[in-house]
Amino acid sequence: MSDTLNEMKNRRISGTGWIAIAASVAILFTCGFLTALVGIDYQPHEQTAMSLTPADPIGLFKAHPEPLWHLLTYFVANVFRCRVEIAAGIVSGLLIVATYLIAFFAIRKTVPGIESHEAAGLDLVLHLTCAIFVPFFNKTPYLGQGSPNIWHNPTTITVRPIALLVFLLVSSIVMKAREEEFENGIPVGRAILTGFLLVLSCFAKPSFVQVFYPAIFTLMVIWLILFKGKNLKLGLQLLAVCVPSLIVMILQFMIAFYSGNKGSGGVTIAPFVVAGARTRSIPISLLLLLAFPLLMLILAAIRKSVSWSDVFVWIMLLWGLVFRLLLVEKGERTYHGNFSWGFMLAAYLVWFTAVRSYLKLYFSEQMTGNKRGVGFVLATLVLALHLLSGLYYLFYLVVLGNGM
Q: Is the per-residue pLDDT at 331 higher than 80?
């Protein structure tokens, strides 16, 4: 009984925790609002938002097959009678806050012993980081490297909280199924919720499902081999869950690339053409983006604490990297890098699991009374470099007025 009471007490958010959450929310909303005013991708999306006809959903979908952000912005602009630029800032700011809150509660749930203010602080760090900025190599913080935190693209900001929810939900489903030796199927409620979120993610931006589908398929194939086919039922159930969103994604793909609309020139394979256009070295750019997650993966491997959830998210990143390196749009959108968005979303999810692993490492050492190890100190220094680079990136966008 006392253990249960202590656990309930630990789950409460302290006064310091509420202050840390409120401060973090205010910071992230402000960053999202201000970067919406300068983001290079915002103006065309704002024009689309104000030209929508919500009463004609089929025509709306044909005109813009990923309309969720645009509908939200249209709603805010009309309800509050404000300029579309202000509505865009409000919507994007709130979506960034939503992502932060989902990550906060996920960290609190999965990291034993963590206090609410500690979770809030590291969660804020997670949502401010970017690739390590090395001026003599990468002249701009974002181009060439990418970032786990995208500020200039509203549709990526929209899909990110949904992607995080799907990752957390599906991870819990497959991990529980494995613990139960695949005897039980996916609960109906969770299956419906997952299917709905996947469809919603398509309407936000189909880039997430582009990495989710091949990653979950790859994981199921690996498990079929390792567990001698026991997970076949689970794999078929997951396939059924994915079917509605898969249909939506196929329709979106045809409209975006083969409808004959402006810019829809099709897709081709052209290795490294787009990914290498703005960097002198793709491997170095990848290292600058993923230095902290890679270090945490190495430390977890040394400690033999790499989970299947970690494996799943890294598989997503690898599939995203394949698409980023190989696929190119034909026509005027060749160098827009639209096949990089799945990779960027997977990079965010990899960063989320890395921060979670960092906190688990901190508390495991704290509880045993050991001094901080070399690995933890090194990870802290690398994380600090990512954070400083992320803060400079915001300065570069908001104060210096750069669009990307």
A: no
